[in-house]
Design a protein that fits this description.
Low-confidence stretches: none
Shape: globular
Strand order of the largest sheet: 9-10-8-7-6-5-4-1-13
Helix content: 25-40%
Bound molecules: S-adenosylmethionine, iron/sulfur cluster
Radius of gyration: 21 Å
CATH superfamily of the largest domain: Aldolase class I
CATH topology of the largest domain: TIM Barrel
Number of helices: 15
Mean pLDDT: 94
Largest sheet: 9 strands, mixed
Length: about 450
């Protein structure tokens, strides 16, 4: 099958599989009481990873698909920070034992928008209520256009080890259309300042498929970005979902590259980054060979969670803040998505969990299959079934889809072992979808696969 036919066949809309079942399948069958029981059942030996969601930015970029809103004063940030501190105390109390935290990830939105005193206070509150591992990774997403000196000092005091900077594309007409003016000089200066306070790992986020994006423009962006020598680079496919993110409707559809152009843009990004000596990780990440993510990929320890690819090996992920999702041994639990409802729940003294899903044995098996495909691009079905104590014919329902993928060369498949060649990396989500029991056969509204 040629590339156009492949795109036509597989550019159907499938999830990014940062969880399985995916968030649209969460329901109010899981609420605060269920989540409290799950937290209380965590064993003393469980290690934790904390995700803190800060859904605020100074201005909104038109392309953004994150749960965030624009604020121009600090008052809502302070009240939100207070709710986060209360939630940290409440969650620790519900767990009821001092568990070790191995990773903290501040995401958003723009967590570095919080006043320096609030960043410090939340960080102290985590240290007070949990046992923070001495070598814990502390990561934060930063908007390089705005990082005042007092925030930088707060990040140093918090012991931040890894930062993720939004870049997207440096081409002026792309920036104009997405409503985000950001110079290379400001981005490089921000990375340098962060390295200056001891941050050892810098990640840059780029996006392909943006309005008015061209091959030459993306290549130029990448060549500039690579001079920053980031430890990691993510290149996400632009998810245009104006029915969910209304501000994206400000981006004219006619300015968006079509499926084939997206495919070529992705390929350009990959070629440039690989030529600079990085290793490709999963669907959309790249890392320097010595980086933790590359090592995790090499040793089969790579994981996929709501932040994308990670080397986080913690037993449970606890999401804090509006819309944040916890991944616990029993299932997923998501906080109320909107800030007022989240704050009201915390103020009332309860957990803010609004929905989620409890996993059954079949979900766990499929989740493991999908995570393995997304992370390692290979799967031994017999080994997987044995590890899960599953029946010999479990997952056989995936065979027709796998046979079709094999027939057109997107996977090698012998009835037991599946592997995805490097050339089929852009179609990884379509391969994972073969194991998704919940996938609607009628195309639903997700972002394009490629
Ligand atoms: C929380 S932001 C990063 C931190 C900071 N707010 C910033 O913009 O610099 C996370 C990243 O998600 C990516 N992103 C946001 N909206 C997206 C979309 N609609 N499609 C693909 N990637 C998107 C962008 O690369 C963005 O930098
Ligand atoms: S890309 Fe970053 S700064 Fe822009 S709206 Fe999204 S979260 Fe905020």
């Amino acid at each position: 099958m040629d590339i156009d036919a492949l795109i036509a066949r597989y550019d159907r809309r499938v999830p990014r599989y940062t969880s399985y079942p995916t968030a649209p399948h969460f329901s109010d069958a899981v609420g605060a009481a269920t989540a409290a029981g799950w937290l209380a059942a965590l064993p003393e030996t469980a290690s934790l990873s904390l995700y803190l969601h800060v859904p605020f930015c100074r201005t909104l970029c038109r392309f953004c698909g994150c749960h965030t809103s624009a604020v121009n004063t600090d008052a809502p940030l302070r009240t939100y920070a207070a709710a986060l501190r209360d939630e940290i105390a409440l969650v620790a109390q519900t767990i009821g034992k001092p568990l070790t935290v191995r990773q903290i990830h501040w995401g958003g939105g723009t967590p570095s928008i919080l006043p320096a005193a609030e960043l410090r206070a939340i960080s102290e509150s985590i240290r007070r209520h949990f046992h923070l591992a001495r070598d814990a990774e502390i990561a934060i997403e930063i908007d390089p256009r705005r990082l005042p000196a007092d925030r930088l000092a707060a990040l140093r005091d918090m012991g931040v080890t890894r930062v993720s900077l939004g870049v997207q594309d440096f081409a002026p007409d792309v920036q104009e259309t997405i409503g985000r003016q950001q110079s290379f000089a400001a981005t490089a200066a921000c990375a340098e300042a962060l390295r200056g306070i001891g941050v050892g790992s810098v990640n840059l986020d780029l996006v392909y498929g943006l309005p008015h994006q061209t091959a030459d423009g993306l290549r130029a962006t990448l060549r500039q970005a690579l001079t920053i020598a980031p430890e990691r680079i993510a290149v996400f496919g632009y998810a245009h979902v104006p029915w969910m993110q209304r501000h994206q409707a400000l981006i004219p559809e006619a300015s968006l590259p079509d499926a084939r152009a997206r495919f070529l843009l992705r390929e350009i990004a990959e070629t440039e980054i690989l030529a600079a000596g990085y290793l490709a990780i999963g669907l959309d990440h790249f890392a320097k060979p010595g980086d933790g993510l590359a090592q995790a990929a090499a040793s089969g320890q790579l994981r996929r969670n709501f932040q994308g690819y990670t080397d986080d090996a913690a037993d449970a992920l606890i999401g804090l803040g509006a819309s944040a999702i916890s991944s616990l041994p029993q299932g997923y639990a998501q906080n109320a998505p909107r800030v007022p409802a989240y704050r009201a729940a915390i103020a009332a003294g309860g957990l803010a969990v609004a929905r989620g899903v409890a996993l059954d044995a079949d979900d766990r098996l499929r989740r493991a299959a999908i995570e393995q495909v997304m992370c390692t691009m290979r799967l031994d079905l017999d080994a997987l079934r044995a590890a899960h104590g599953a029946a010999a014919d479990a997952l056989d329902d995936a065979h027709p889809a796998l046979a079709e993928l094999a027939a057109i060369g997107l996977i090698a498949w012998d009835g037991r072992h599946l592997s995805v060649p490097a050339s089929a990396r852009p179609f990884l989500r379509a391969v994972a979808a073969a194991f998704d029991r919940y996938l609607d056969p009628v195309p639903t509204r997700h972002a394009p696969t490629i």
